[in-house]
Amino acid sequence: MIKFVDLAAQYSLIKEDINKAINDVLKSTGFVLGQNVREFEKEFASFCGAKYAVGINSGTSALHVALLAKGIGKNDEVITAPNTFIATCAAISYTGATPKFVDIDPETYNIDAKKLEDAITKKTKAIIPVHLYGQPANMKEINEVAEKHNLIVIEDACQAHGAEHYGKRVPVSDIGCFSFYPGKNLGAYGEGGAVVGNDEEFIELIRIYRDHGQVKKNIHKYIGYNYRLEEIQAAILRVKLRHLGRWNDMRRKNALIYNELLEDCDVATPAEKDYNKHVYHLYVIRAKNRQKLIEHLASKEIQTGIHYPTPVHLQEAYRHLDYKKGSFPFAEKYADEILSLPMFPELTEKQIEGITINIKDFLKAGK
Ligand SMILES: Cc1ncc(COP(=O)(O)O)c(C=O)c1O
Fold it and tell me: Is residue 82 within 8 Å of residue 328, measured between CB atoms?
């Protein structure tokens, strides 16, 4: 059996440190917003090359408070990509703003910066580029458009911890939101997230919103949220953060092996732009006959995934936005073809060989 993500393989390598970190929290009985959260915030900000990070209880909440702290709300429009996880759009909707979509670049599968201007209206307040699968969107061009139209940029870096754009780790602009969902490149053992940024006032507002709008003990300036990161999760994240750079390199090595072994096959492999460092949260190919290929691989005990089979604008939840099939041709075409193959740092070359041999057998048989 080759798992899609093997969290047990990783745990077995760092078990002692993780168990000690959890036990220390249990002994301290400080479970919420304590020393580990504070230290993790400093360490993660430094990892990202940013001034500040605020620990949040999920990536979705991180996006929500980032939008709120930037004053996004009713009657505003926020542009994002239609092929993202629905959480990006849900966060926009929570604020009362309306998500607007722009089709994706066919090479990188990220939002097409060249099509952004067509979607900007008088109501547009912000852009949320999503660094999908671990590869940064074209932030250079996106930031140029944002500057020209005076728009806020909030990077959805939930799949891209440690990814780089022109040598700078994300977030490339001022604000980035991260998820620490267990399967992420940096994953908690439960839920977690962070807002990363450089502006002190903005970051202070995030801290206030995450803790019931509380500015001082029992002084609530706003109606905020319980979006606090737990100490146990922060303690786990601190242990794992020490390995993240190496784990990302291992993912990149695995992606290279996949690329080489699939070179002459009738499948599209990921295209990494030379100005980016992709961290391969997911290794996504495109294949014809995807469903049959999934079944073939499953019959050989190889797990796969689809991220994501239905673009957000075609989800029932967003029917009220009135987008039709055909609105975003690349996002829609690719949704029918994309297939995520097993990807995690501990995946072995032998396992990748096994996976690619089975893909080749399937293609040769012309199924
Ligand atoms: C692109 C993207 N945005 C947002 C999220 C939401 O993060 P979380 O699941 O931590 O709320 C995720 C995580 O799945 C994601 O992949």
Answer: yes
Using alpha carbons, select from 35, 14, 76, 23 the residue that is nearest to residue 244: 14
HSE, side-chain direction, 13 A CA sphere, residue 13: 11
284 DSSP 8-state letter: E
User: CB of 125 within 8 A of CB of 105?
Assistant: no
CA distances from 162 to 52, 106, 205, 220, 233 (A): 15, 23, 25, 35, 19
Q: Which atom of ligand 1 is nearest to the CA of 179?
A: 10
Q: Among the three residues 189, 209, 238, which one is the final residue of a domain in this structure?
A: 238
From residue 335, alpha-carbon distances to 45, 285, 288, 311, 320 in Å are 34, 11, 12, 7, 21
* Cα separation, 79 vs 34, whole angstroms: 36
279 lines ligand 1 (CB under 6 A): no
212 token code pair: 């019931």
Does residue 280 line the site of ligand 1, with CB under 6 A? no
User: Which residue's CA is minimally distant from atom 8 of ligand 1?
Assistant: 59
Residue 312 · residue 82 · CB < 8 Å: yes
84-105 pLDDT, tens per residue?
999 999 999 999 999 999 999 9
323 lines ligand 1 (CB under 6 A): no
**In this structure, are 100 and 206 located in the same domain?**
yes
Q: What's the whole-model pTM score?
A: 0.98
Q: Which amino acid is at 134?
A: G
CATH number of the CATH domain containing 174? 3.40.640.10
Q: How far is the CA of 120 from the centre of ligand 1 (A)?
A: 25
Is residue 47 scored above 80 in pLDDT? yes
